[in-house]
Amino acid sequence: MSRLDVTECYQGISFCGHLHTQESLQYATNFQFQDTDTLIVTYPKSGTTWMQQIVSLVSSHGDATRVQTEPNWSRAPWLEQYYFCDLLKVQQGPRLITTHLPYHLLASALQGSKAKVIYVARNPKDVAVSYYHFHKMANFLPDPGTFEEFLNAFLDGTVHFGSWFSHVKGWTNNANNVKNFLYITYEEMWQDLRGSVEKVSRFLRIPLQDQELAAAEKHCCFSSMQGNSMVNYTLIPQEIMDHSKGKFMRKGKIGDWKNMFSEEQSRLFDAVLRTQLSESSLTFVWECAEESTILHDSKNTEAPARRVA
Which positions fall inside the Sulfotransferase domain (predicted)? Predict the structure, then answer.
């Protein structure tokens, strides 16, 4: 399947036609989850690959064989992509599934299910920057234009996969409607990787011995993933993902937005964030700890943040 220039529109949200069809999107919204399933949910560029790696390593008790021999899109296939059904047929053991879909498209499918849902969020300024760079190398996504043009589309929610604000609000506001739900942030994984692996381990009810935890941590650190072809998407052909224009796993840092945003763009973004998340208690880390960490909440960018457990 190519369709690199095709955009599928499904219930008002744009999806890249290279990976999605009307049929695959319809199938996803009507998917029959099993109670043993684990579903990783993210908005694009929010730590998806990282969580796929963590869950894979926790499930294998730190054994890296599978994460070094099987691509992540095969061991944690995307629910809404056209090849999902074929990959699901050959999966063995409890199923690990990934999605970028918003809550309202999966609410009906998850109703009554005991499937475990892990939602990973990232501060939206870093999401916007990472997503912009990804557009520049992914030939199945539209030309992002200038960063200012892309940022305006991001704030308007007209980029592929829709609004970040709607996505994060939809899933977190409905967390109580999901039987088994874990919220974790990209920044939490960056600042305390071992603690994050332990958190996932407890949620999945897969206890790890100290040596298993150490092995899992080793193989899901950013530098390890960056050099692993099963994770870094270098297996994808150049005509689909142009690696000469950038790396899929580019920097992975907290606060890279400061290298892209102008002061005016940052103020505009903060204003939209306060409006969009005015009734939310979510908080985000905007700078790396060693660079004098600043924590913002959605209502007051000067207020101290509260961690969401």
Answer: 35-280
Q: Residue 155 and residue 157: Cα distance in Å, rounded? A: 5
Active site residues: 100
- Distance spanning both ends of the chain, measured CA to CA: 41
Q: Amino acid identity of 183?
A: Y
CATH architecture of 7-297: 3-Layer(aba) Sandwich (3.40)
How big, in percent rounded to 5, are the helix, strand and coil portions of the chain? 45, 10, 45
> What is the Cα–Cα distance from 228 to 219, expressed in whole angstroms?
9
Q: pTM of the predicted model, to two decimals?
A: 0.90
Element (H, E) at 231: none
Using the CB atoms, write b or e for 27-66: b if 16+ within 10 Å: ebbebebeeebbbbbbbbbbbbbbbbbbbbbbbbbbebee
In tens, the pLDDT along 167-196 reads: 999 999 999 999 999 999 999 999 999 999
Q: Where are the domains of the chain?
A: 7-297
Phi and psi (nearest 5°) for 107?
A: -55, -45
Bridge partners, 15 (sequence order): 8
